[in-house]
Write a structure and sequence with these properties.
Number of strands: 2
Shape: globular
Radius of gyration: 13 Å
CATH architecture: 2-Layer Sandwich
Number of domains: 1
CATH class: Alpha Beta
Distance between the termini: 22 Å
Number of helices: 5
Low-confidence stretches: none
CATH topology: Dissimilatory Siroheme-sulfite Reductase, Chain: A, domain 1
Strand content: 5-15%
Length: 103
């Protein structure tokens, strides 16, 4: 485990850069950090929508969605999500605070 700092906040992350402790609420500062790690400038409205829908799914179901349902949840094809996020759904999940990659 390592610690990263961004804009005055400190986060514990695993060896892959995912948060160790899942946040209770979306953390805009963490999203900003993860976005920069992905090599993305400011998030556009489609990217924000994906992040918010993944967060909403988690808050409602208390589970990280499986890769096979990401398109249904977000309304975007996996191809489109890979176009929006360089590391695909995993990059979007990292912004939400998911602690692992999708299965």
């Amino acid at each position: 485990m390592k610690t990263v700092q961004h804009n005055g906040s400190t986060y514990d992350v695993n060896e892959e850069g995912y948060l160790v402790d899942f946040p209770e609420e979306l953390d805009e500062n963490w999203i900003d950090y993860a976005r920069a790690c992905e090599g993305i400038g400011e998030l556009n409205s489609d990217q924000k929508e994906v992040v918010n829908k993944l967060w909403g799914y988690y808050k409602e179901n208390r589970i990280i969605p499986k890769l096979g349902v990401i398109s249904r949840i977000t309304g975007y094809s996996l191809k489109r999500i890979f176009e929006m996020f360089p590391s695909g759904p995993s990059g979007a999940g990292r912004m939400v605070g998911f602690q692992r990659k999708f299965c």
